[in-house]
Amino acid sequence: MHMVCLDLEGVLIPEIWIAFSEATGIPELRRTTRDEPDYDKLMAFRLELLAKHHLKLADIQRVIGNMVPLEGAVEFTAALKERTQLIILSDTFEQFAKPLMAKLDYPTLFCNSLVTAPDGAVTGYKLRQKDGKKNAVLAFKSINLEVFAAGDSFNDLAMIREAHAGCLFRAPASIRSDNSDITCVDTYTDLLARINEFLLP
Length: 201
What we know:
The chain has a seven-stranded mixed beta sheet with strand order 4-3-2-1-5-6-7, sandwiched between helices. It is built from nine helices and seven strands, in the order E-H-H-H-H-E-H-E-E-H-E-H-E-H-E-H. Strand 2, helix 5 and strand 3 form a beta-alpha-beta unit. It has a domain of 127 residues: HAD superfamily/HAD-like (Rossmann fold, 3-Layer(aba) Sandwich). Helix content is 44%, strand content 20%.
């Protein structure tokens, strides 16, 4: 049996923190896992900015409510789910993801959780698991699933390398050049073609 594991932001939906940066006019919030490989460092930076500007979870959720999947993502996920099992492995947070999952017809999502104060201030976060994407692929392999993985950022490299097959998708030039052994595709048509090759008996 086969399983496809995909990253979420930058692959199926726009980057949430970039959208929030544009909505708030705070350019520092544009920094994502494409730019910073250390996730804990990145989140500490984000939490500091939220506190500095007195921004709360509800402020982020209002922006997310107006976001839509990337062009072609809905059709791509529908075609993919007709062929095989799809799991989204993301470092986003359950408090962010729900409205976006509805717009993608509710694929299964493994992600993290935010910690909030009674007033809605974001005070921390809880990882589902350390190295959650790689460990999810390892777990699927342990029950004899054949895994294909794809993503666009530093935090996707371990799961792609751990999977039986995979590729980068619309990754920035720096990640492509530093990981030239991993193929990168830039369209859903090409990504679906690679997955279909993987699914061939």
